[in-house]
Design goal:
Blueprint lengths: L4 H8 L36 H16 L2 E13 L5 E13 L3 E8 L3 E6 L3 E6 L4 E6 L4 H12 L23 E10 L2 E10 L2 E8 L6 E8 L7 E9 L18 E2 L9
Parallel strand pairs: 6-12
Antiparallel strand pairs: 1-2, 1-11, 2-3, 3-4, 4-5, 5-6, 7-8, 8-9, 9-10, 10-11
Length: 266
């Protein structure tokens, strides 16, 4: 089955604040309009200061977390050469102890990956293939994420969780921001926002109250006629302890080490 890889890659290359998922929690100026707020937005692009402030508050809250576990369930559209859209599902479990410990377990319809970062080394392991590769890593999760993306062209799911609330968030790229109204995601009370960047529309549901966590994100690629979407729902656990051994990779029996080669020109 041939797919349009350009379409599939668009979501992964979307600007930060779009690639996958964040948090906040402030009642914005349009909240009094309730669920009809979206219908009263002007046709022209508008940047609601409250919607931007909500992102900033969300980012600040994320940066205050010392450790967490989050389970993300996602669906991603890919487009066949015929123009027909096909949807694939994936699940990502992120366990983090900041600033320098990270573990990701990724399971999708087509692959399974594990990523370990113990503060000194980052390792990616493919359980089905039994191959793993390790490289020396910088001293923080954010630096390691940047290394993976820039040097090795590795897409790390939910990387934006570690950049929101920093000067690398890219909030200046937002061209339109509105408050849609109150909502619920999996029984959790949220505020629903919609944002627009060049070629990309995205929606964010943020938990209300004192724990403004991102609960859902929907990204739509607008500069392609098929308008493929990526949707992610997040389930948070801020209380479960994350033990140090969680982040240490121990090669299973039969696993083979291979070299992680930098991307061309890097």
């Amino acid at each position: 089955m041939k797919t349009n890889t350009h379409v599939a890659a668009k979501i992964e290359r979307a600007p930060r604040y779009v690639r996958v998922v964040a948090a906040l929690g402030v009642l914005l100026p349009l909240a009094g309009v309730g669920g009809a707020a979206w219908a009263q937005q002007p046709a022209a692009a508008v940047v609601n200061p409250g919607a931007i402030e909500a992102l900033k508050n969300m980012g600040a809250y994320l940066r205050s977390l010392k450790s967490f576990t989050v389970r993300a369930e996602s669906t991603t559209d890919e487009v066949l050469e015929s123009g027909q859209k096909i949807q694939f599902a994936s699940t990502v479990i992120v366990r983090a102890r900041l600033p320098d410990r990270l573990r990701l377990d990724v399971t999708s319809d087509r692959k399974q990956r594990e990523l370990y970062y113990d503060g000194k080394t980052v390792t990616q392991y493919a359980p089905r293939l039994k191959y793993y590769a390790s490289v020396t890593a910088p001293g923080s999760v954010r630096e390691t994420m940047s290394l993976a993306a820039t040097k090795y062209d590795l897409n790390v799911p939910l990387a934006d969780l570690f950049f929101w609330g920093t000067d690398q968030a890219g909030i200046e790229d937002i061209k339109s921001a509105i408050y849609v109204g109150p909502s619920r995601v999996g029984g959790v009370a949220c505020d629903h926002y919609a944002y627009r960047q060049e070629g990309t529309d995205w929606q964010l549901w943020i938990q209300t109250g004192k724990t403004p966590l991102p609960c859902k994100l929907v990204v739509t690629t607008m500069d392609l006629p098929e308008q493929p979407q990526h949707a992610t729902t997040l389930h948070w656990d801020l209380k479960a302890p994350v033990e140090g051994r969680t982040f240490v990779f121990v090669p299973p029996k039969g696993a083979q080490k291979i070299e992680l080669v930098p991307a061309a020109g890097k």
